[in-house]
Amino acid sequence: MSLRERDARVIANIARLRFSPLGLVGGAGNRLIEEGGRQLLDLSASFGPAILGHGHPAITAAVSAACANMAGASLAAHPNEDAVALAEDLLRLTPGGGERRVWFGHSGSDANDCVMRVLQAATGRSRFISFIGSWHGGMSGPISISGHTALTHTLPRAGLLLLPYPDPYRPTFSADEVLKQLDYHFATTCPPSQVAGIFIEPLLDDGGLIVPPAGFLQAVQQRCRRHGIQIIVDEVKVGLARSGRMHCFEHEGLEPDVVVFGKGLGGGLPLSAILGPQHIMDHAPAFAIQTTAGNPVACAAGRAVLQTIADEGLIERARRIGAIFSDGLRALRARHPMIGDVRGRGLAVGVDLVADRQSREPVPVAMTAKVVYRAYQLGAVFFYVGLRGNVLEFTPPLTLTEAEAEEGLAIVDQAMTDVTRGLVSDAAVAPFIMW
Ligand code: 7F7
Predict the structure, then answer these.
(1) 135 in contact with ligand 1, CB cutoff 6 A
(2) Strands 39-42, 31-34: parallel, antiparallel or unpaired by DSSP?
(3) Are residues 221 and 141 in the same domain?
(4) Whose CA is nearest to atom 2 of ligand 1?
(5) Confidence tier at 53 by pLDDT (50, 70, 90)
(6) Which of 262, 282, 333, 382 pairs as cysteine with 236 (C-beta 3.0–4.6 A)?
(7) Across all residues in the chain, what is the average pLDDT?
(8) Number of domains in the chain
(9) What is residue 270's DSSP assignment?
(10) Best substitution site from 46, 201, 232, 236 to test ligand 1's pocket, by max atoms within 8 Å of Cβ?
């Protein structure tokens, strides 16, 4: 029985996304190794976390050493060198003033959950603001403040104010209109004095790789700050060098009160972090404990990731390889009418597929799924996002080489040609339409 068949028999279908028949037995560099031994180019990094690819020597060495001499398993129980040093690193690398503190968790989800709890406790306010299209996690708290169409199975939190995220390509609402909505809500049904915080993705990734219009997020920040609303920037997916800056919020001139890290921080190991003002973060002992959070093995991986970003110049590299990749995708527009827009920052790149360039109507999701599926057959792995399921998502390891970027472009090109020619049937792709 194949790995894929065994997977379907035992893994619950509440946490599976399968965009192709890919089943993995290993990984090396920026390649994934599937059952049978074929190597595929990884243009997703498993939705972002494999920031240094697979089996990077720095992570392997750090994790092996931490495992072999394990300083306990719990930061809750006692400090360990790797956790404390990682917190020091994050504080050093993240702009902001005053006394700040760091909390560690296992995932972006638990980190956002903790932020919600601690902000309510510390401010005495219970409402939040977030954006349509946002994805803040798969636990009760963060699901309830997410605005993604794939998460509508769970009701939003009472009192949540969901604002549109202005999309320059499909401007249903302009930045000014959204700001007007915010002002109106503040003046009517959402008194700002009730709002603890606003959750911001500085680049709306799962919502369709949408780069906000210049100045919009700053204007939101200004309005919220006036009312003592905490600014929480969710850097889980696009933070830590991926955008071509250390922090994606730096592109937007944001000055967050609270920054949330996850995914790439652990380089593939479960690790998240929150960084925020001491008066909020030091709420009460045992307020947000998870026994193995901050364990030395995951934190050693985190330190190795931050060190490697510096050692290998990955910020600059994300910018450079990202430009090559995005420019290459833009060049493909000449041959593929389905490419409506290519956008993103650094190595977070989206390709918006349209049925018609004039109207910008999204392709049916089956079309996007076919491109992803065909690319898998041709040897590259990436997925799709967007509220209409029409945006190809590229978040490769930041170690992607120029040659690999070119190889990826050639596969995307061929996949689109093959799909346009009808090489992938509706039946073939039906099991791989996820949202
Ligand atoms: O690591 P975890 O899934 O708990 O992180 C939650 C999260 C928090 N913040 C942002 C901006 C995120 O994008 C996510 C998770 N994103 C999803 C999770 C898996 C499936 C779809 N693709 C994502 O990237």
Answers:
(1) yes
(2) antiparallel
(3) yes
(4) 108
(5) very high
(6) 262
(7) 98
(8) 2
(9) S
(10) 236
188-207 pLDDT per residue, tens: 999 999 999 999 999 999 99
Distance 136 CA to ligand 1 centre (A): 6
Say what percent of the chain tops pLDDT 70. Answer: 100
Residues in CB range of 282: below 8 A, 6 or more apart: 101
The ligand 1 atom nearest the CA atom of 201: 11
d(CA 15, CA 340): 31
Confidence of residue 100 (pLDDT cuts 50, 70, 90): very high
Cβ distance 41 to 30 under 8 Å?
Answer: yes
Q: Which two tokens stand for residue 185?
A: 């809500």
Same domain, 20 and 116: no
Give the confidence band of 276 by pLDDT, cuts at 50, 70, 90: very high
Q: What is the helix, strand, coil percentage profile of the chain, to 5?
A: 40, 20, 40
- Largest Cα span, the chain: 62
Distance CA 220, CA 323 (A): 29
Contact 232, 258 (CB under 8 A): yes
Q: Supply the range of the domain harboring residue 418.
A: 3-37+314-432
Beta strands in 242-371 (DSSP E): 258-261, 272-277, 339-345, 348-356, 361-362
Nearest alpha carbon to residue 196 among 141, 274, 116: 116
Q: Are residues 294 and 396 in the same domain?
A: no
